[in-house]
Design a protein that fits this description.
Layout lengths: L1 E3 L7 H8 L5 H14 L3 H12 L11 H11 L19 H13 L3 E2 L4 E9 L2 E8 L8 E3 L3 E7 L2 E3 L2 E3 L4 E4 L8 E2 L5 E7 L3 E3 L1 H9 L3
Antiparallel strand pairs: 1-9, 2-3, 3-4, 4-11, 5-12, 6-9, 6-11, 7-8, 7-10
Amino acid sequence: MMKLTRGQTMDDATRAAFASGRAEPSLGLFIDTLFQMRGISETEGEAIAGAALEGEAPAELSPNALDMALAAIERGGPKKPKAKLIYPELAGVPATLQDAILAAESRRAWGWAGRGIKRLPLISDGATTAEIIRLEAGVKIPWHGHKGQELTLCIFGEFSDSRGTYAPGDFSISGPTIRHQPVAHDKGPVYALAVTDAGLKFEGLLGAFQKFFGG
């Protein structure tokens, strides 16, 4: 497990590990958002990524690689007025993440995930998914474990779990040995960017429903 707060910096090994995930859209979004919130420049981020990928074996391009490249080129053209975010609290998040949120909101509505909890799926590439989680003030996510790895980056508001308190720019890494219950602070809504590669394991009644429906 890992928790890094805004006042701390990542060592080279951690940065390289994150940078090596840039090839996957969901991890790339997480890394770009984290670097922007931490004040790590694009040049430094690319240098970290380059160093991390020097020893990597070549990988096949994803089927939509050309579409993604053309979309990136198009973004560099004349700017169109942006659509309005459904939740104005997200207006201050990095532009890369804002674009992903707006694109997701144009395709689907925010989904209900429990009392005071909403989620907006952003990217799904195979087993790995990226989504925004929204918690109303004081709301607790049910106790849960993890089938694989979960990366969680606080992007607005504050929440806590047994490992500490998370403010914008703080993130955690949770693996199969971690069980926790994130709780939103009472000051207002909380938003987090979450990337998972195998889903969550809920406990109690919710866990029973999850098993019954094959989750």
